[in-house]
Amino acid sequence: MNYKKYKKFETIKLTDRTWPDREIEQAPVWCSVDLRDGNQALITPMDIDEKVEMFQLLVHLGFKEIEVGFPSSSQIEYDFLRLLIEKDLIPDDVTVQVLTQAREHLIKRTFESLKGLKRAIVHIYNSTSVLQRDVVFHKSKEEIKQIAIDGTKLVKELSQEFDEEVILEYSPESFTGTEVDYAMEVCEAVLDTWEASPERKVIINLPSTVEMDTPNVYADQIEWMCRHFKDRDRVIVSVHPHNDRGCGVATTELALLAGADRVEGTLFGNGERTGNVDIITLALNMFTHGIDPKLELGQMNQIKNIYEKCTKMEVPPRQPYAGELVFTAFSGSHQDAINKGMYAYHQRGEGIWEVPYLPIDPADLNRQYEPIVRINSQSGKGGVAFVMDTVFGYHLPKALQADFAKAIQNISEIEGEVSPERIYDTFKKEYIDLEYPYKFIKQRLIDISEEDGEHERRAEVTIEDHGEVKTLVGYGNGPIDAVKNAFNSTEDFLYTDLIDYSEHALTAGSNSKAAAYVQLRPQGEEKCEYGVGVHLNITTATIKAMISAMNRIYKNIKKEG
Ligand SMILES: CC(=O)SCCNC(=O)CCNC(=O)[C@H](O)C(C)(C)COP(=O)(O)OP(=O)(O)OC[C@H]1O[C@@H](n2cnc3c(N)ncnc32)[C@H](O)[C@@H]1OP(=O)(O)O
Ligand SMILES: CC(C)C(=O)C(=O)O
């Protein structure tokens, strides 16, 4: 690959930069350009109904500034703005913005489209970059500056005839390819022409029209500009980053450190080529640092659905915060840590989110119903245990987690991803539904303790043993003891030791079933087997768990032996 074909863009010398020592402390003014830069980049631009739906979504999300289009460019763009105005769809606290090239006939037509609006941002642009001055405009620096001045003059003149407020926005388009001192000269000419003041601020938008360098270089350009305006107070510094090098979010975050007040971007980063900066990621990055993002992004799937419908674009599965796979862990160590982190979060009860591998609580985006953990051959026992716990309510004991995970891994190695339903079916098949050679039929547990004496229980357990129905009887000072002693009357059970026992309710409420887990070891063997029993009655659940363990011993140990 001939890398010598490319040259590095000249960077500016800013040795006393201050942005590296700053932190983002508040959300900027957000301006959505979905209906303009986003729309102009679509294979099939939005029709009017889709534009209205997108506009309403943006309003709902809390955008107070929305670039609704380029009304002088086509009838549909013009008609859309007219519809918003005539149907009174623009809330009082939302300012619409319209884009136009700094050209007379386009500016005039733009003003026609604004009639009836209370307030508007009129955004004019002309490219100022070294390359475009040369190959597109064939104009000198002075001539290019004059385009900006003439455009500003015309907007000023027309806005004086306009009943309501017009805010000027000016973009030295292709700013990242423009010498900063020349960009400043053009911007100052615009500001002077407009007679900008702290009371009559102008939005100076410094676009990374094409992302040409590392984010720190853009941050230097923005800091340089912020420091060199004659009067910083008469300027709202806006950035409009694109994503050509894949650094749009980083570029914008550094630009905010460097002094930008406002950000233009789109939902999910739709826009020309690699897209505009993704405002959702920016806002949620702030949110996850405890900063109010000033946008309502809590219904992520709904936002995604409307976006996909209107743009006919797809949100990729790894898109930050929104992608299908971003709250999913396949790998064992991640699953284990998420599992423990979620448990610790609920135990602490302090409401401060700190869970390994999950920078945000999925519930904050209303994504709690999606599986956080998915199981494939990279998964470990923690993930399987998490699914059994969170989806089906089984708190598997540690040794059982490892035992069951092996069964799931055998499946995933052949079939790939294993769904929660398949995991549950396998669990039932492996532990709960075993009925040979022993099968539970019924049980009776009688308290036979004398008054003030030790509590003694008599257990009568009717089972099928290799097809033969038997009633086993045992005594003990507790139910487990009595049941185990009843089973000891069969030879198989007699020579097993009860290693572990636990139980819990599966769901809340008096009708809830209990799950019991029993670990038995045949005497003289190293290997144990777990059994699981589920029943409304806890004693029956325990008996079924013992039978399950015996059936597994029979299947896995005795047969093997
Ligand atoms: C970076 C961005 O995203 S900027 C936004 C870009 N968006 C769009 O272009 C979408 C909508 N645009 C359009 O529909 C069309 O471009 C229109 C209707 C606005 C203008 O159409 P046309 O005049 O037919 O064509 P075009 O846009 O190619 O204009 C080219 C002419 O305008 C000049 N020009 C281009 N941009 C500007 C500008 N910002 N200010 C002044 N003149 C400009 C060019 O030098 C060229 O002049 P020439 O004809 O003397 O060579
Ligand atoms: C009009 C300008 C702001 C633009 O879209 C860009 O530079 O990308």
Automatic annotation (TrEMBL):
CDD domains according to UniProt: DRE_TIM_LeuA
Record's keyword annotation contains Nucleotidyltransferase: no
Cofactor(s) this protein cannot do without: Mg(2+)
Pathway(s) of this molecule: Amino-acid biosynthesis; L-leucine biosynthesis; L-leucine from 3-methyl-2-oxobutanoate: step 1/4
Enzyme Commission number(s) of this protein: 2.3.3.13
Catalysed reactions, semicolon-separated: 3-methyl-2-oxobutanoate + acetyl-CoA + H2O = (2S)-2-isopropylmalate + CoA + H(+)
Keywords: Acyltransferase, Amino-acid biosynthesis, Branched-chain amino acid biosynthesis, Cytoplasm, Leucine biosynthesis, Magnesium, Metal-binding, Transferase
Positions of the UniProt region annotated as Regulatory domain: 434-561
Sites where the protein binds Mg(2+): 37, 240, 242, 276
Domain (Pyruvate carboxyltransferase) ranges: 28-301
Main location: cytoplasm
Keyword check for Ribonucleoprotein: no
Subcellular location: Cytoplasm
Pfam families hit by this protein: HMGL-like, IPMS_D2, LeuA_dimer
Binding partners and assembly: Homodimer.
Family: Belongs to the alpha-IPM synthase/homocitrate synthase family. LeuA type 2 subfamily.
Function text: Catalyzes the condensation of the acetyl group of acetyl-CoA with 3-methyl-2-oxobutanoate (2-ketoisovalerate) to form 3-carboxy-3-hydroxy-4-methylpentanoate (2-isopropylmalate).
Designated name of the protein: 2-isopropylmalate synthase
Native organism: Allocoprobacillus halotolerans
